Structure formats: C-alpha cells, structure tokens
C-alpha cells in the first residue's frame, strides 16, 4: 500500500490578487508528490480553517503580499486551535518584513518564506516538520 | 536593407569567420553555454549582421518617430522636446499622509502624480467591511468617500498636475470623485489630465482585484469611454496593462501579445457600444513592465508600438494617426527585486530605467530598493526618482531618438518578438478573443507555465540572480522599513461613522436608487455615479448597488 | 472519544479523518463503516459528470446552495485527476465553492486519483458511506467523465447528471459512445453561448433512439455562472428520485450497485492475495518471464497460482 501523500491547503487570505507565488509553490509541491488543495483568492481565515478541517490536510500554506499578514496569519492559527486542529502545520510566505517574523512565529506560524526562497526549501521544511497522522 | 551583392559578400565573410577565427577559439575555449537566450528564452546568436535584417523594409517597418508604424516613437521629437513624465506610484495609510507624500514628491521634481489605493478601495469595500480587516491603508491610500478624496488632493491644483490612478473595477467611482474635487477647486472637468487604469481583463488574468463579471465590467468601461470623450477629453480613459501580466510570470512576447489582445477586446466593445473608433482610440494608453534584459526590453517596446499601429489601421480601419499611436507608461519590474542585499536593486532599477527610456516610454515609475520587503521609505523613493533624473540629464541617451535602431540585433529581435506575439494573438482570436481565452484559462495557463519554468531555472541555477542564488552573503544588515500604522483602519472607521452622521442620508438614498435604475436600464452610469459621490455616498455603498445589479465575478480557472 | 462515535454525532473533524483513512484503505475506517452500515442508505447520491471545462463545480456549487435553502445537509466529493508522474496533484474545485466553505451544513472533500487503478472508486464509495453515516441528505460526486474509473464512480450514484456545453462538436460523439447511457438527467450548461440550442437538440435526438419504460432522461438548459435554470435541473433530479421510488427501480439499482461494490472489493482483495502469495514463492515476474520464453504457459500458471491460494 502506497503511503498517503502529504496533503497541503494552499490559500490566499486577504484581498491581494498576486497569486504567482502561491501557484508556483502549489505546482512545486505537486511535483514533489504532495496533494495540494488550492482555495483561490480572497479567503477569510474562517474559510481557510473550515477547508483545512474538511480536507483533513497536514499543512496549511498561506501567501500574502499586501501587508495584512500580522492580522490574518495569527487569526488562522487561533481558529485552528479553537477547532482542536493545532496539529496542522502552518506556514506563510510573501512580502513580509524581517521584523514581523518573530511575532508571527510566536503566534504559531512555524516558518515564513520571503521572496527568493527556493521552492525546494519549502518542500524540505514541510517534509521535515509535518506531523503524519 | 542592403544590396544583394553586398549581402552575399557579408554572408561569405561570415562563413569564413566562423570556420576560422570562431572555430579556432571555441575549440580551445568553449563558450559558457551551449545555447544563449534572452531573459524570456528567445535564442540569441553569437553575432548579428546585415543578413539578420535583410528582409526588413526601413520605410515600412521602422520609419520615423511620430509617423506610422511608430516603431521609433510616438512623437516626432520625443525627449528632445520634453523628458518622459517621472511619475512615482505612491499612496499609503490615510489621505492626509499620502497628501504629504505627494507634496514631497512634487517638491523633489516629480512631474505627475500616481495614486496607489489600498485593496479594500480597489475591490469596492469601505474600510469598515469585514473583508477589509488588516488591509486598510496597507498597499495604498484608503478612500471611502469624497471627503477622503478632498483631503488627498488638498493644496494640489488639479489643473496643473496630471494624475494617474491605479484603479480598475471601481474606476468610474474614483474618477467621479476626482471630477467632484476638481469642481470644488474651481477646475472644470474638460481641463483635467490624467489616467485611470480601468483595465479589468488583466485583473481576471493576473492582478485579481475584480468585482463584477466580465460583461457588466466591460459596460462600465465603455460608459467611461463615452462620458469622457464628451466631457473629459484630455483624460486617458484606460491604461491597458501588461505590467501585471509580466509580473505574474509571462515572457516579453506574451506581455505584448496578451496586452494587445486585451486592447483589441476593449476596442471591439466600444465599437459594439456604438462609438466611433477615432473618437475614443486616441485616449487609449498602455502600461508595460521594464525587465532586466535591456536589449530585449527595448525591442519589446518597439515591437509593441509597431503591432498596435498595424492592428488599429488594418483591423479597425482607424483613420486618425493618433488612434494608431501606442502611448505607454512603464514601471520597472517589481518581481526582479530581491529581498537579499536590497541595495543591489538600485542597479537593477537603473538598467530597467534605461530599457524604458531607450524604448521610448511616455512616463516612468522606478521601483525602490526595499520593495521586496515592504512599502518604500522616503529615502528609497528619492533614490529611485534620482535614478530617472540621472538617466535623463547625465547619460545622454535622451538626446537622440531611438538610438538603438539599426542595431542588427535590436531590429532582428524587434521582428522576432513581433512574430512571437502575433502567434499568441492569432491563437486568442481562434479562441474567440481575449475574454473567451481568459474564460477558458488559456492566457492564465500560458503565464503560469512561464512563471514555473522561470522558477525552475533559478533553482537549477541555469538562471543567476545575484545575491539570491549566487554571490550570497551570510549576514544581511538590518534595514529601516516603512511601517503603516495599524491604527489607520480604526481611524477610517471613525471617519466613516462621522460622515454618515453629517451627510444628508435621504439624498444619498435617492442618488443610489437613481444609480441602480440606470444600471438596470442600460443607461450610462457615469453621471449617476458623479451625482452619488457628490452627496457623499461611500465607495462601498456605490459598489454595493452595482453588485446587486451586476452580481460578482467568481474566479474559475486555476492551474 | 473514538472516531465512529464522533462521526454519528456529526463531528466534522472525525468525518474528515475517516475519509482520509478510508482513502488509505485503513482498517480503522473499514471497521467504522462495518459497525454503522445500517445507518447508511439515507443520503441520495448524485453523480455529476461530463467533459472537462463544462462548469461542473460551479453547477454543483449552485445546486448545493439551492438544497441549503431547504435546509438539507449536503456532502460534496470533488474528484480531480492526478499528475501521473509524481503522484501529486492540485485539486482546485473548491475555488468555485468558496462561499460554501463555512456553511456548517456542507462538507466538501477534494480527492486526487493518486494513480492507482480501481482505488479511486473504492475510496469514493468509502467516502460516500462515511458522509452517509455522518448524516447528510445529499451527496454529490463530481468528476470528469473520462476514463473507466471515473465512469465506475458515477455509475454507483442514485442519479447521474451529465453536464454538456455547446461547441464540443465531435466530443459529443465520443462521449455518447462511452457514457451517454449512464445519464439519468442531462444539463446543457452555458446556455448563453451560441449553439446551446443545437447541443440540446442533438442530445434530445440521441436520447430518442432508445426506448424507455417510465423515465426518459430530460434535458435542461442552464447557465450555472448566471444561476439561471439551475432550479429546473434540481427539479428534474428530484423527479428522477421520485420516479425511481415509485417504479421500484430504486431498490433494483441499489441491489445492482451493491453487487458491483461487493465484486469490486472481492476482486481487489483477490488480486492483492495473488501478489502476496506469488511474492512468497517465485514471484509473478519470474512466472511471467517463463511464459514469455514459452517455458510455461498462462493457463498452467493460472492453475498453479489458484492452487496456492486454495491451500
């Protein structure tokens, strides 16, 4: 029996429509053998968490380029906790100033990938840190 | 461009050179790569000669500046008359703060304004909307009503500056507010100069700030065309944008092709709405990206001008030469900026500036070094503006028109890009035009494939990005970044609350009802929107009415 | 609390986890289904299929919204093709169902085909059972109508909706050959496009070739994007359901599907057994090699393997 592939929810919270990064990452994860569920643009934290639960994903990967990360990323983690789903690995990416990273990590976002991160780094991080069920 | 006899001689000597000099050198010192390509992947030869331009007819395909097919530029004197407009895209937080930044930029010698709106404004939500949380004032200024717009342009004479507004889905609302502010300043609408982006098709393709489905969106656009051709004649009613298509990962030729295909769709829509092509086409403008491959970019701009001229003349039978001129704004490529060693970005932007200027742009925004990290600080914006000023005043490239013309490489590449772009345009025509091609996902898929290839090249180091995948440093020094005050959201909400207490709510209601009726009954919406903004109806209220009538677009095609 | 108990209480996380387990053929999920199988059979299962680009997800979204207005609980299983080289996939059907994500009465699950043959129809069948125990009134299975395993999936539904779009031309012929006969209800989506009437007419003509006793598949023109005509389609789905009950076909269909399901499961188990047992001996590859060079023959090989199994 083949091992269950890692399931990842790739989501764009907030209002920005720049999904180049999210889509490139989605493709790279697929090519690394993962099952990617793509949610599309303008997702509220509630929608993301709800999808993550129904899809029983191992990872939630979010991308924001508008600067709304400090508000939206932690909210997703908080809602996941409320659903007792804090075993799901949460990572983020986008235009995110270095100064913001420590507080985001403290809020439960396990890693932040800024522009220029090779997709291989993201893949490795997920493989290493995902909690298999 | 050469006599046959001369050409034969050149071909022979080239063979000789290849067999002797080249052969000898390459056998001892192989070249760096088996195949050389442009930034977009077009093959590049070792050397270009008259042979590569032999079938180009000078008068027909290159010609003179200000003359069909406009390959060399849209005006006869270009920068010898006046430099391009140096226009830095700016806006953040509240109208008050952005107003300060505009005044600063004008003092620094900037010659036009370019307004960046925050995402809620771009998507037609007021600052107190649920989806606006965390976004207010982040990527641009928050505008909820005419009251904010009055502050934004306070003390800036609207008959003296030209203003570009990056606004698409709710473009008519922001234009209406601009007209209303001008009126309060005593400036009549026929004196206003500027541009609204108003290009919804590329929002579906690449940028994502759409509101309504394609059909009503196209109608709002033609409403603006019609209104402005009669009342705001100096206003550029659309800026058909390849910038974001390129940022999303397209190649140079795709950027030209998809942008012009969008352009064709707008012209079709306007003609279908009963407008005469020469009545609105002179007010169409374009917006392109300036990427790193200097010579490819210059060729791209030349190819785009030539193609559009041909399309307008041959396909749409335009008679006025002004309808055939592709005027464009340029922005340097944000996607080429690295978060690593951000000062290197100054150099990238300088090269891209040269590309835009050598390509004959009408206006230019130069990105700031820190934009891969956050919104730019005032210091960074100044360096970016200075870059343009140095190219204008010190480099000498603005002293003669289209100085790279006649380069065998440039002329050949111009032709290649034109051919490549035409292939895509033909394909889009086969699919039934840009809106259909977008619906089927053809354009998005092409762009995503290019973007993914680009990323894979970087990761395999087939493509080097200095400071990112080569020449790295271990420890990056800390940078000062601009922080938008998180209180902006609450301040805007407060303002909205006060506004709704102070304005005449009965009049607002009436004006919104009238707008609704006009939208339902296919009347031109523009006059009704102007009326509503003057009553201080909010952006969210106006777009809300239109949402009720038109419905909302749902993203459909993905990967 | 154990997963099964949480599932009957309508716990979303348990439901989601059990679907993952059944997708992986995990015993824990099978046990839950065994234990609670008497609670299944209440949900009406609707298969939505048709050529790619037909707007199936958008249509599903609209149908679900209509059912939600009547306060029905709905489950959706959206099946997407897998990238055959890496086993990975990008499942994007949720994009068109974004509004439903936070609706407590809706459960949407995306499934990749994961490359293994037959496994998909088993996994979807399992997921249907779990959603049924979870307590939904309707289950949509949405999949592209190409490939045998996709056809197998929709065949097991109670009502099969075939979604067509104008302008497919020859494709209709191809589809007709394979899966036309499994449609109970037909939809022509994108009715605003040129050729919608023609497509509908062609469908009606094709359907007229066959003889029917009580139910002749109706054809509905609609535009899912504009939300026009979707209610007519839902009416036809409900009518089909009622007709099946009245005519007694419902029972027959479920019996037929149960038989298929049992046979599929047995077949799969047997195949696994074959692999396992031959591996314990000389291995299937070695046997095949012998047959290829005519040192043995397929019939004797079969007999030998069967003998091993029977031991």
Can you tell me the CATH superfamily of chain A? Answer: Cobalamin-binding domain
Summed up, the helix count of chain A is 5
Q: So how many helices of chain B?
A: 22
Percent strand of chain B: 5-15%
Distance between the termini of chain B: 45 Å
User: Major sheet of chain A, described briefly?
Assistant: 5 strands, parallel
CATH architecture designation of chain A: 3-Layer(aba) Sandwich
What class would the helix/strand composition of chain B place it in?
alpha/beta
Give me the CATH architecture of the largest domain in chain B, please. Alpha-Beta Barrel
Summarize the structure in words.
The complex is a heterotrimer of chains A (133), B (559) and C (311). With 133 residues, chain A is an alpha/beta fold. Chain A has helices at residues 20-31, 45-54, 69-82, 101-106, 119-129, and strands spanning 7-11, 35-38, 59-64, 89-94, 111-113. Chain A has a single domain (7-126), classed as Rossmann fold (3-Layer(aba) Sandwich), CATH 3.40.50.280. Chain A has a five-stranded parallel beta sheet with strand order 2-1-3-4-5, with helices on both faces. In chain A, helix 1 packs across helix 5 (119-129) and helix 2 crosses helix 3. Chain A is globular, with a radius of gyration of 13 Å. Chain A starts with 6 loop residues before the first strand and ends with a helix. The mean pLDDT of chain A is 93. In chain B, 50% of the residues lie in helices and 7% in strands. Chain B has 22 helices and ten strands. In chain B, helix 12 (294-315) crosses helix 16 (408-430), helix 14 (344-358) crosses helix 15 (378-393) and helix 20 packs parallel to helix 22 (539-550). In chain B, 50% of the residues are buried. Chain C is globular. Chain C is α/β, with parallel strands linked by helices and 311 residues long. Chain C folds into two domains: 3-247, Rossmann fold, CATH 3.40.50.300; 264-310, no CATH class. A seven-stranded parallel beta sheet of chain C has the order 4-2-5-1-6-7-8, with helices on both faces. The longest helix of chain C is centred in the C-terminal third of the chain and has 32 residues, at 249-280. Chain C contains twelve helices and eight strands. Chains in contact: A-B, A-C, B-C. Chains B and C meet through loops of B and loops of C. Strand 2 (35-38) of chain A pairs parallel with strand 3 (89-91) of chain C.
């Amino acid at each position: 029996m083949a091992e269950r592939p890692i399931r990842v929810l790739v989501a764009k919270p907030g209002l920005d429509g720049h999904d180049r990064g999210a889509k490139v990452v989605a493709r790279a994860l697929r090519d690394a053998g993962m099952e990617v569920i793509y949610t599309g643009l303008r997702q509220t934290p509630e929608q993301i968490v709800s999808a993550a639960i129904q899809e029983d994903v191992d990872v939630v990967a979010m991308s924001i380029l508008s600067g709304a990360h400090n508000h939206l990323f932690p909210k997703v983690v908080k809602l996941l906790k409320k659903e007792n789903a804090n075993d799901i690995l949460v990572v983020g990416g986008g235009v995110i100033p270095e100064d913001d990273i420590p507080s985001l990590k403290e809020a439960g976002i396990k890693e932040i990938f800024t522009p220029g991160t090779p997709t291989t780094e993201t893949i490795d991080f997920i493989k290493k840190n995902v909690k298999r069920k | 461009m050469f006599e046959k006899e001369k050409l034969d001689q050149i071909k022979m000597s080239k063979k000789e050179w290849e067999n002797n000099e080249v052969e000898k050198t390459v056998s001892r010192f192989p070249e760096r790569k088996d195949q050389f390509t442009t930034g977009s992947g077009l093959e590049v030869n070792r050397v270009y000669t008259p042979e590569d331009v032999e079938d180009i007819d000078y008068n027909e395909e290159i010609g003179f500046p200000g003359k069909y097919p406009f390959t060399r530029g849209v005006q006869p004197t270009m920068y010898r008359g006046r430099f391009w407009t140096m226009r830095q895209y700016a806006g953040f937080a509240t109208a008050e703060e952005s107003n300060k930044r505009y005044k600063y930029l004008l003092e620094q010698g900037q010659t036009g304004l370019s307004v960046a709106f925050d995402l809620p404004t771009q998507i037609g939500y007021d600052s107190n909307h649920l989806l606006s949380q965390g976004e207010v004032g982040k990527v641009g200024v928050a505008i909820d009503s005419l009251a904010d717009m009055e502050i934004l342009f306070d003390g800036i004479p609207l008959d003296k500056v030209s203003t570009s507004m990056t606004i698409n889905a709710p473009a008519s609302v922001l234009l209406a507010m601009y007209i209303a502010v001008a009126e309060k300043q005593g400036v009549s609408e026929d004196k206003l100069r500027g541009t609204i982006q108003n290009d919804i098709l590329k929002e579906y393709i690449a940028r994502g700030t759409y509101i309504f489905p394609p059909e009503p969106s196209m109608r709002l656009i033609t409403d603006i065309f019609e209104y402005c051709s009669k009342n705001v004649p100096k206003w550029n009613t659309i800026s058909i944008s390849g910038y974001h298509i390129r940022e999303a990962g397209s190649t140079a030729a795709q950027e030209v092709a998809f942008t012009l295909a969008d352009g064709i769709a707008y012209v079709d829509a306007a003609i279908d709405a009963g407008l005469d092509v020469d009545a609105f086409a002179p007010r169409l403008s374009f917006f392109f990206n300036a990427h790193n491959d200097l010579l490819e970019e210059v060729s791209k701009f030349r190819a785009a001008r030539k193609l559009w001229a041909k399309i307008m003349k041959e396909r749409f039978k335009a008679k006025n030469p002004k309808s055939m001129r592709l005027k464009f704004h340029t922005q340097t490529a944000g996607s080429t900026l690295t978060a690593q060693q951000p000062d290197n970005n100054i150099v990238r932007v300088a090269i891209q500036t040269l590309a835009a200027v050598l390509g004959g742009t009408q206006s230019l925004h130069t990105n700031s070094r820190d934009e891969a990290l956050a919104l730019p600080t005032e210091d960074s914006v100044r360096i970016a503006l200075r870059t343009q000023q140095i190219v204008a005043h010190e480099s000498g490239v603005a002293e003669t028109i289209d100085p790279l013309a006649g380069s065998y490489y440039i002329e050949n590449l111009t032709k290649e890009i034109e051919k490549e772009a035409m292939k895509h345009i033909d394909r889009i025509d086969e699919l039934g035009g840009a809106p259909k091609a977008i619906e089927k996902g053809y354009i998005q898929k092409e762009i995503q494939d290019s973007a993914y290839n680009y990323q894979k090249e970087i990761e395999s180091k087939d493509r080097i990005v200095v400071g990112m995948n080569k020449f790295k440093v271990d420890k990056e020094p800390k940078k000062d970044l601009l922080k938008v005050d998180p209180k902006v959201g609450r301040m805007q909400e407060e303002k909205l609350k006060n506004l709704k207490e102070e304005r005449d709510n009965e009049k607002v209601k009436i004006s919104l009802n009238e707008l609704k009726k006009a939208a339902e009954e296919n009347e031109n919406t523009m006059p009704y929107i102007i009326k509503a903004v003057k009553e201080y109806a909010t952006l969210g209220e106006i777009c809300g009415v239109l949402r009720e009538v038109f419905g909302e677009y749902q993203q459909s095609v993905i990967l | 609390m154990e997963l099964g108990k949480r599932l009957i209480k309508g716990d979303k996380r348990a439901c989601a986890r059990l679907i993952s387990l059944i997708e992986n053929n995990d015993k824990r999920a099978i046990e839950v289904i065994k234990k609670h199988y008497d609670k299944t059979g209440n949900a009406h299962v609707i298969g939505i299929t048709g050529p790619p680009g037909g707007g199936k997800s958008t249509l599903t979204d609209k149908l679900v919204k209509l059912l939600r207005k009547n306060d029905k609980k709905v489950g959706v299983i959206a099946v997407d093709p897998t990238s055959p080289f890496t086993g990975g996939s990008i499942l994007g059907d949720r994009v068109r169902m974004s509004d439903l994500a936070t609706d407590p009465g809706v459960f949407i699950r995306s499934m990749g085909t994961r490359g293994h043959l037959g496994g998909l129809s088993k996994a979807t069948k399992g997921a249907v059972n779990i959603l049924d125990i979870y307590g939904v009134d309707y289950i949509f299975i949405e999949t592209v109508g190409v490939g045998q395993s996709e056809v197998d999936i929709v065949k097991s539904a109670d009502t099969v909706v075939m979604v067509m779009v104008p302008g497919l031309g020859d494709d209709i012929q191809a589809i007709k050959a394979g899966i036309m006969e499994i449609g109970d209800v037909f939809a022509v989506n994108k009715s605003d496009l040129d050729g919608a009437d023609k497509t509908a007419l062609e469908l009606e003509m094709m359907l007229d070739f066959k003889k029917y006793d009580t139910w002749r598949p109706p054809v509905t023109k609609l535009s899912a994007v504009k939300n026009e005509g979707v209610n007519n389609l839902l009416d036809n789905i409900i009518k089909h359901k009622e007709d099946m009950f009245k005519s007694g076909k419902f029972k027959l269909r479920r019996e037929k599907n149960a038989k298929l399901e049992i046979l599929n499961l047995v077949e799969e188990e047997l195949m696994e057994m074959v692999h396992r047992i031959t591996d314990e001996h000389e291995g299937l590859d070695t046997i095949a090699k012998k047959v290829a060079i005519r040192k043995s023959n397929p019939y004797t090989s079969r007999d030998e393997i069967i003998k091993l199994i029977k031991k």
